[in-house]
Amino acid sequence: MRLRASLGICAALLPSLAASALDRPANPGNYRALLLTLSPGDRMILAPGVYPSGLPITNRVGTAALPIEITGPETGPPAIIYGRSCCNTISIVDSAYVAIRHLEVDMRGEAVDGLKAEASATFAHHITVEHVQMYGFGGDQQVVGINTKCPTWDWIIRFVTIEDGGTGMYLGDSNGDEPFVRGLIENNLIVNPIGYAMQIKQQNPRPNLVGMPTGDNVTIVRDNVLIKAARASTGGLARPSLLVGHWPLSGVGQNDRYEIYGNFLYENASMIEGLFQGEGNLAFHDNVLVNTFGVGVISVPHYDLPRNVSVYNNTIYSVGRAIQISGGAVGTVQRVVGNAVFSNAVPAITGGVQADNFTASTANASMYVASPGTPLGQLDLYPIAGSALEGSPLDLSFFAAHLDHDLDFDGTVKSRLFRGAYSGSGSNPGWTLAQEIKTRGGAVGGDGGVIDDGGEDDGGALDGGVAGVDAAAPDAAAPDAAAPDAAPRDAALRDAALRDAAPPDAAPPDAAPPDAAPPDAAPRDAAPRDAAPRDAAPRDASARDAAARDAAADDAAADDAAADDATADDASPDDALPDDASPDDALPDDALPDDALRDDALPEDASSGAGASADASVAAPPADAGEIILSASGCGCTSSPESPSASLASIFAVVGLTRRLTRRRR
């Protein structure tokens, strides 16, 4: 049983915070020493150059009003953090209200992660990571771009590029004990990972930590581009592009929901895995999916069951089955509404309560959309003029509680006449499907938002606006509940409109009642998206070589590194591997003997065979059983005393040490 120390005494021991923030210029020679002194409101500005000793962020705790910021140059030659064999490149331990911006992370082929919230930590919350480029991963599926292995909440990950990684983002632990809660993941580009482009793990009952969100909350995954056109593992190591696991089955968080929308998922060259797989409570809408290797969307029993699942207004082009749902929990509803599907499978959609979907073969897709089946740069799935994708109005009232349910893939207010992710026909006025960071129209933000917490337990949000859900379950709106036809596109106006929205009514009599539906209030929207991102591709070698390398204090930095790396989570060989660091970690996270096989890859997922039985039931695996694939197929360093945050950091350090000692006894 893990010891969870209460931090309730912390507030009484806090020193008064500095009255004003400080800009702290840093270079490769002094940055490690400056890291130890960062206080709430400080902004460490890294000069262009190569930073050879990683970026360990330990016991750095800002506040909502005075976050700590670590940033490189916004333009011009970059600040490049080099990977080292000893340690994860950016390492986060017991830190909060920290923003990391405008950096490049070059792993240089080392078998370490790009950024990791370490397993040795007690917490890492209110962390912003944006405008960061990661590359140089080498060829190991174990190596992760962004990895969390302690309880984390209110993270913002945006405008991040992860190129040719082992795994793009791996959020949570394989055993479900380290939850990733109320996150916002948007406008990222992940290109050709070997394993997952992104996975958010299933969750066991949550730990009782001070400040961890209570109530019902939403984790948002939107406007990301996930590409697996090459390098993907095949056979037993194949993985979906995007996988989300279930929420806690009881207690706090059981009514949380994923809202996954506006994303472009392109190819999964594993040949057998799909583009998206999810269970629990989730809304998957207004996404564009293309997979000429296999299947599109799967929601079937894995560690738990599909619960309130809504799949609507997606455009899917796949040679395998486009949408497959089965095995939903009793008392929950899975709805499949208004999708435009081009698939060679017959039927193209199985399971769920289906309404107003459009299906055709991939061979006939050009009769309805502009340029299907073509390479990126030419690919265009926008409806042609007069397309049969336009028809009678869709009833989207079931989804009125979902954030941006009334906006299409491009952020355009829906007319509700079109099946698929686009609301319009003719020439596409929005973003072109491409290997680049996706942008939307509408208002843009300034600095992308230093963290702004609206309160710890009251549904308060990150900057980026992942507030408490306080929302009706996806299927709880009455059929006749009028959803807004013209919600404002401007994010600030939409924010106010959603906050003031009347709660939807209860589920209609003929619908299965939702299982533990969240409270009835619409979630707040996010803050306006950031301005145009920095270059998505890593800078060329000449820029890196031009960066400063004459670190006069290299020896001192190396000494610092040795000191804190000795206590770093990844200092042990198994912690350099993602999530379930055990001998089985020679394989990527869920690669235990049965997990070396496909996550819920059903036999027909590689072709167009029959669907799985709808009465599948799955028991939650024991905590010590490792990851067990349940598919129908059966296969598969110290805080500086001069820092105003020293007392708080010391308290967190003691709690973290107690937790580490407890872990080592297990």
What does this structure look like?
- With 666 residues, the protein is mainly beta.
- 8% of the residues lie in helices and 24% in strands.
- The strands form three sheets. It has a 24-stranded parallel β-sheet that branches. An eleven-stranded parallel β-sheet has the order 4-7-9-11-14-18-21-24-27-30-33, covered by helices on one side.
- It is globular.
- Residues 1-19 and 442-666 have low confidence and may be disordered.
SSE arrangement:
Layout: H1 10-13, E1 23-26, H2 31-35, E2 43-46, E3 49-51, E4 55-58, E5 68-71, E6 79-82, E7 90-93, E8 95-106, E9 115-117, E10 124-135, E11 144-148, E12 152-153, E13 156-163, E14 167-171, E15 180-181, E16 184-186, E17 189-191, E18 198-200, E19 218-222, E20 225-228, E21 242-244, E22 257-261, E23 264-268, E24 276-278, E25 280-285, E26 288-291, E27 297-299, E28 306-312, E29 315-318, E30 323-325, E31 334-337, E32 340-343, E33 349-350, E34 353-355, E35 358-360, E36 369-371, E37 380-383, H3 491-499, H4 541-546, H5 554-565, H6 646-665
Parallel strand pairs: 1-2, 2-5, 3-6, 4-7, 5-8, 6-8, 7-9, 8-10, 9-11, 10-12, 10-13, 11-14, 12-15, 13-16, 13-17, 14-18, 16-19, 17-20, 18-21, 19-22, 20-23, 21-24, 22-25, 23-26, 24-27, 25-28, 26-29, 27-30, 28-31, 29-32, 30-33, 31-34, 32-35
Antiparallel strand pairs: 36-37
